[in-house]
Amino acid sequence: MKLLFLLLFLSTLTQALEPHTATYSLSVAGFKIADERRVLSQKNNIYYYSAHAKTSGPMSLFKDYEIDAKSSFIIDEFGLKSKHYQYFERDGKTIKKDINIRPENQQIDPLSLFLALSQALEKNPAQTDFYFLVNDGEEIKRHHYQQAKSEDKNLIKIIRPGKQLEAYFAKDKNYFPVLIKSKKITLQLQQNQTKN
């Protein structure tokens, strides 16, 4: 009976994390500067998540900026747990950041953070407070997120108090993040394709 319960529990954990390819528009101060492509795949019990963004369109004439990030993680009874995180950021010929870490214990990385929120919301949509230990390769910080009132019944609004961050997760898309807004950057979902 315990084994059956554990299998059912683990199967509900993974529904929000189906392999997919998502494209977001990346904007700064209301101006689109790039498209960001995110891909989630799974092999056995390990998930692989990658993101790539590079300035495009008219903005590329003024700025040559590129970001590549990769994360691998597992899901256990406590939620999402990062195993490996890589982050590369380039501005022209200048490398701004080059991070390659292996987070420990229940730490998560910034790339998989919003998937961890998706997974937590799918598991319990009524949850109001979320706590994560986030390791970005430069420091490890405890993050607190709260569910806030949303004007759209299909969207769950999550904020990070005092940090000017809000994210919206669509109930009809397995609590997938469709909009992420910070003080400087906005990511808006353009397309999401689930892989079968």
The unreliable regions are 1-15
Tell me the series of helices and strands, N- to C-terminal.
HEEEEEEEHEEEEEE
Structural class: mainly beta
Radius of gyration from the CA trace? Answer: 17 Å
DSSP strand count: 13
Strand line-up in the sheet with most strands? 6-5-4-3-2-1-13-12-11-10-9-8-7
Strand content: over 45%
What is the chains' assembly state?
single chain
Mean pLDDT across every amino acid position = 88
Please outline the major beta sheet: 13 strands, mixed
Cα-to-Cα separation, first versus last residue? 30 Å
Structure, explained:
The protein is mostly beta strands. Helix content is 12%, strand content 57%. It has two helices and 13 strands. The protein has a 13-stranded mixed sheet. The N terminus is likely disordered.
Please name the defining characteristics of this protein.
2 helices; disordered N terminus; 196 residues
In summary, what is this structure?
By secondary structure, the protein is mainly beta.
Please describe the topology of this protein.
Layout: H1 2-14, E1 20-28, E2 31-43, E3 46-55, E4 65-76, E5 79-91, E6 94-101, E7 107-108, H2 113-123, E8 129-135, E9 140-148, E10 155-160, E11 165-170, E12 176-181, E13 185-194
